[in-house]
């Protein structure tokens, strides 16, 4: 979770992520983690700037052959 997406971000005067959306996201991540665990896998969840968190994870794991991500599509006005 990148804090920049949840702190002081507004779109058309409304918070980008309000309390209901945040709860939905947290519940969805929890459910995904539980589903993966039942299948013998896991889900790594971290809070911080992705450029820092991913670098630290790669260092911690040591043998990473690929990193995959998606970037949020931004509306052009």
Describe this entry's structure for a reader.
The chain has 77 residues and is mainly alpha-helical. It has one domain: HUPs (Rossmann fold, 3-Layer(aba) Sandwich). Helix content is 42%, strand content 5%. It has 2 helices and 2 strands; from the N terminus they run E-E-H-H. A two-stranded antiparallel ribbon has the order 1-2. The chain is globular.
Main β sheet profile: 2 strands, antiparallel
Superfamily at the CATH H level?
HUPs
CATH class: Alpha Beta
Helix content: 40-55%
Strand proportion: 5-15%
- CATH architectural designation: 3-Layer(aba) Sandwich
Structural class: mainly alpha
Compute the number of structural domains: 1
Tertiary shape = globular
GO molecular function, one term: deoxyribodipyrimidine photo-lyase activity
Protein name: CRYD protein
Organism: Daphoenositta chrysoptera
Keywords: Chromophore
Topology summary:
Blueprint: E1 10-11, E2 14-15, H1 19-38, H2 50-61
Antiparallel strand pairs: 1-2
């Amino acid at each position: 979770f990148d804090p920049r997406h949840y702190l002081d971000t507004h779109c058309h005067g409304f918070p980008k992520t309000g309390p209901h959306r945040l709860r939905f996201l947290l519940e969805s991540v929890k459910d995904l983690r539980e589903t993966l665990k039942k299948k013998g896998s896991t889900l790594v969840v971290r809070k911080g700037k992705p450029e820092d968190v991913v670098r630290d994870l790669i260092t911690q794991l040591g043998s990473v052959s690929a990193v995959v991500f998606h970037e949020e599509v931004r509306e052009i006005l």
